[in-house]
Amino acid sequence: MDNYIQFPRYSIYLIPNKLFIDQVDNLLLKYDIKFDSLELSNYGLHYNVKAPFYLSHLYSEKELINSFNDYFLSNHNKSYKEAFNVLGLKKIKNVFALEMNTNEKFNFLCNDIMRHFDLFRKTLNQQEIQKDLKRFSNLSSLEMEYYLIWGYPYLFEFSNHHISVSDITKEIIFDNSIKSLNYSSISLMKQDSLNSKFISICKSD
C-alpha cells in the first residue's frame, strides 16, 4: 500500500432523504441493479461537498468534530434545505448520475465548507502527490492547480450538482420518475478501512 494512504479518512456529504433514496432504489431495480452490490455503496448516495481526505497530524478527530459543530452553529446559510429539481440522468466519467439544479447561495455554501475544512487535510509531499495523481487522468492545467491547492481537481467550474447512482456496466434509461431531491443532513463522514463504508459521525440537520 502506498505510504500516503492512511485510515481513518474523512469527508463531508450532503445526504438525501429517504424518499429520494427509495426512488433511486426503485429505478435501479427496474434494471436488476442492487445498489448494495456496487462499489459505490461504500460511499452511499450523497453529494460530495468535501472530497475524502486524510487527517493532518496537527489535528485530532475531536478537533475536527468541534470545528464542524461550531461551523454549522454559526452559519445561517440553510440553502441545502431547499428542494432541488432533478434535471435528468447523465454520464459523468464512469458512472451514471442524477443531475440537479443549483443556485449561487448553495454553491457558495458548498465552496465555503470545502475551503473551511481544508485546514484539517493532510498535505502530501511531492513523492506522495505523484502516487496520488494516479487516481486521475488527463487533468487540465487548471484542474492540476486546484489539485495542488485543495487536494482534489474537480472543483468550482469543473463540478456540478449531481448524485452518482450506478456504474456504466449496464445502460439505464431515465423515466422521469424522480422529480426532486431534498437533503436530510450535512454529515461529517468517516471511513475506517479501504473497503469499509463511510459512516456519519456528526451531522447538521
Would you give an account of this structure?
The chain is α+β, with helices and mostly antiparallel strands. Helix content is 27%, strand content 26%. It contains five helices and eight strands. The chain has helices spanning 18-29, 61-74, 104-116, 126-132, 141-150; strands spanning 9-16, 47-54, 84-92, 95-100, 162-167, 180-181, 183-191, 199-204. Strands 2-1-7-8 form a four-stranded antiparallel sheet. The longest helix is centred in the N-terminal third of the chain and has 14 residues, at 61-74. It is globular and about 50 Å long. It starts with 8 loop residues before the first strand and ends with a strand. 20% of the residues are buried. The mean pLDDT is 91.
Mean pLDDT: 91
Lateral arrangement of strands in the main beta sheet: 2-1-7-8
Shape: globular
Order of helices and strands: EHEHEEHHHEEEE
- Radius of gyration based on Cα positions: 17 Å
Q: Major sheet: size, sense and barrel closure?
A: 4 strands, antiparallel
Task: Give descriptors for this structure.
205 residues, alpha+beta, 26% strand
SSE layout and pairings?
Elements lengths: L8 E8 L1 H12 L17 E8 L6 H14 L9 E9 L2 E6 L3 H13 L9 H7 L8 H10 L11 E6 L12 E2 L1 E9 L7 E6 L1
Antiparallel strand pairs: 1-2, 1-7, 3-4, 3-6, 4-5, 7-8
